[in-house]
Specification:
single chain; 135 residues; mainly alpha; 8 helices; 50% helix
Length: 135
């Protein structure tokens, strides 16, 4: 996956249709999430589409998230969120202003409210996981 800054540069030059395509392509690049992990426990509440997020802890204590959605654009949004926190230490995740990192993408104005309503819940789940694993 490319860096968030590189992606932001590319995104800023695209029209609305190409932005959708970029998000869909981002979602396609997500690491596959095994079907067995898509349970009620890993389901993110409050999303219009089904979204699952499953945290794993690396040997060095960094968090790695597996995620998936049944909607292509929502899957791309998840990929965008994960670009801000993937494979970081719990303390670093808690120190990351995910909302500010995503602000340049202006998702609330680029996408329908149905597509973006679950983003705060995804972020809350990631932060909650980081808080549980913080040393």
């Amino acid at each position: 996956m490319q860096s968030l800054a590189d992606l932001q540069d590319e995104y800023s030059f695209l029209d609305a249709d190409d932005r959708y395509r970029l998000l869909i392509d981002l979602g396609k690049d997500l690491e596959p999430m095994p079907e067995a992990l898509k349970t009620d426990t890993t389901l993110v509440r409050g999303c219009s589409a089904s979204v699952w997020v499953y945290p794993t802890v690396r040997e060095d204590g960094r968090l790695h998230f597996l995620a998936d959605s049944n909607a292509a654009i929502t899957k791309g949004i998840i990929a965008l969120v994960l670009l801000t926190v993937q494979d970081q230490a719990p303390a670093a995740i808690l120190d990351t202003n995910i909302e500010a990192a995503l602000a340049p993408f202006d998702l609330k104005n680029q996408l329908s409210s149905n597509r973006t309503q679950g983003i705060p819940n995804m972020i809350a789940l990631i932060r909650g996981t980081a808080a549980r694993y913080k040393n």
